[in-house]
Amino acid sequence: MPTYPLTYYLEVEKIAKHCRFLLKWGNNQRLPLVAIAYSENLATSYREWQLAYLNYYNHISINKSLRGRVQGSGSFSVSNVDWYEKLREAEEKLIREFNFWLRSPELYELWEEIKRSSRFVSTQSQSTNTSSIHIDLLISCSEELRCLPWELWKLQDEFASIDTVRVARLVYSCAEALPSPQRQRPRVLAIFGDETGLDFQQDRQAMQILSKLAEIHTIRWDADTDSEINQKQKICKAISDPQGWDILFFTGHSDQTNLTVGKLMVVPNSSLTMSDLEPYLLQARERGLQIAIFNSCNGTEIATWVISKVGIPQAIAMREPIHNQAAQSFLVQFLQNLAQHKDAHTSMFEACRYLQEEHLTFPSVYLVPSLFRHPAAQLFKIPPKGINTFIRRVLPTPLQAIAISALLATSLFPPLQEWMLDRRVWIQAIYRQHTQRIPKEPPPVLLVQIDEASLQKAAIADPHPMDRTYLAKLVDRLASENAKVIGIDYLLDRSHRNRKDAKDDGQSDRTSDHILGKSIQNAVERQTNSTNGTWFVLASVYSEGDWLETLPEIASKNGSIDGHIHMSVQYLPLLQADVPKLPFSYLLAGVAKVRESKTLRSPLAENETLFAQISDTLRFQGKTFHSLISQKAQMLTITDFAQDKFSQSWLHPIVDFSIPPDRIYQTIPAWQLLENKPQIPDSQIVLISANYSEAGVFKQGEDSFMQPTAIYYWLQQSPLTRQRETYTGGEVQAYAIHHFLRDHYVVPIPDSWMMLLFLAGGAILVGSWQPQSRRQVYITLTTSLSLYTLASIEIYISGGLILPIVFPAIVAIVYCLPKLLR
């Protein structure tokens, strides 16, 4: 992005014999107001040039065909006068005096400011191999200064390879700026006025240059069929056409007037004044008229009026009388450039350059055309069409391609993905709390935590592994309270010697294992009102090529099932076709649903495993353990492929920590369970887990995690949990149980997918939208990204999808902003 401004605003005001200059740009930036004496030599030079200009075109042999009624030039016809030489001398003198006046020392800082920007823009143009970068100098000046050829001010750096500074006449308007309509093809109205002494055949042919790009309608005077009044009515009706116009051309005689601003000669010896046309032009402006072009004489006041009074954004007019053939040459060159999708200013600039090169035929005519524009006007141009143009427009620049590729690569970095996901869920937790979108259902899990206080009260010095007799006591108490489903989040694959015997001979005493096994079996066989006793889901893990399962002395053949406890903190443990074990949390939720359905025979058969008995029942219902819960609990093929090949968790449902823990589980310390008699609802799953620092399967402490940011947010809400620093595996398992039980699945859409989608959407936007101003671009992008952010936060709750925000937004800005600001 350029660091220099691309548009300057210069106010020049003549007061008495001095002129005051004020240069503004950017965000309220300006130079100090300076004043210089108005040059009388310049005024004299202008009058001499004007006289020589009129004399030349009144005496040349290519017919006296000026597009205006020139009243007495003050000259007399002398056959031996070289009017061409007179005009060229007057032109050189005017240019020299004009630029000498503007090189006054007081204007040095102004000139140097624009020169610095000119140098920068020239460098940018060379580095990007484009000539479409310009500095626009918009000049508003007192009425007596409007005649001066401000377009000839030599402002660009002398080493610049292109003309970087374009000068236009600035005209302010009290009319409200209106957005330009998006038409399939621009609509052009070409009005050909009185042809007395002229021939517009070449003008009409020139208009066909735009025939393939625009819809052209022409109006011409036909003395055989049209009356004077009918012709005027036809013109007025056409200007106010309900479909609107983009370009209004007028070709013919015109002149400025004192009271009615100006007049257009539309029929012989009769004209339409600007006052006559005002209501119709106002309608045309409301219907999208972007530019008015008066290819006729003395149009300065007319062009100024259509902008200031009517509100048309821009106009091109001839400040002096112009010869018919010169006007035709200008029109051809202007339309050819416009047909090449150049803007109106560049098209006029290059048409003037052509006339300057043709100075032998049309000397000084290049000084006559001027562009008048409102400061907020977007320069008119015909947008290119076609697939090739669309592709060229939407293709990123090399720098953009590098930046977007780097962003895509960065978004695939797993640690960064996890960090971004953690913060995204935290934002969702804040949103839930402030919008009261927290689930109202009671927590489905009772989490019995063996914490430090429980270890102290039970005199357990070394909880690694946990004392089996202590677990047996917890099972007995829970069974006595009619707990229906219990999960034990401890690995029970090894024998545990009886600590009370104090034996340390290397031989394991399985007394404590049998005690725990007896407690589990008693709980399974316990009958209440002909209802099955407690069912258990026990923990297993995969290690060194084999599954570590619960000892047969502990497990109940017909009342327990093993499930694996492998899971990450952020993602749900899904069912995988190549993994024979089902997830621990999935089984707890599934067994609880089977209990609720009451379809399993009671009492349980002693010679069949609980897994087999449930499988038989499900088979009659056309189900299996894999289809016991929602299909969303199955690992998708694309998710499995992405994890295996790219270490990406595409579409893998997350553990939704945006829901507060007290809506997931109810906690009770193990010691309190043993001392009191808590009420356990029939629908509540009980999970016995660790909550002490040494807990872990293969090494101590691995069952404690850094708190997810959303969990930290929730725990800070209560003084009882504010001091906690870690989070346990049992609490994460409780979240997974809740999600499986309540069919709560939140699926993150990969950042890279949304970035590519944003690129596609950005390409459509860039290829189809022509913004009217930089402000419109900023407002559109800011509003769009803000709405997307709000929508993504709401979709998280209502749709179960996590739409990434940061990376897609950065891609949208990197790609769209530079292209739309061109």
Explain this structure to me?
β18 and β19 form a beta hairpin. The protein has 822 residues and is an alpha/beta fold. It has 24 helices and 26 strands. α1 packs antiparallel against α2, α4 (201-207) packs parallel to α8 and α16 packs across α21 (729-741). Strands 1, 2, 3, 4, 5, 6, 7, 8, 9, 13, 14 and 15 form a 12-stranded mixed sheet that branches. The model is unreliable at 72-77 and 498-507 (pLDDT under 50).
Key features of this structure:
24 helices, 822 residues, seven-stranded mixed β-sheet, twelve-stranded mixed β-sheet, alpha/beta
Calculate Rg over CA atoms: 42 Å
Question: Helical segment tally?
Answer: 24
Give the oligomer, counting copies of the same chain as homo and different chains as hetero: single chain
Distance between the termini: 10 Å
Beta-strand content estimate: 15-25%
Residue share in helix: 40-55%
Count the E strands.
Answer: 26
Describe the largest sheet. 12 strands, mixed
Which spans have pLDDT < 50 for at least 5 consecutive residues?
Answer: 72-77, 498-507
What class do helices, strands and sheet pairing give? alpha/beta
Task: Identify the overall geometry.
Answer: elongated
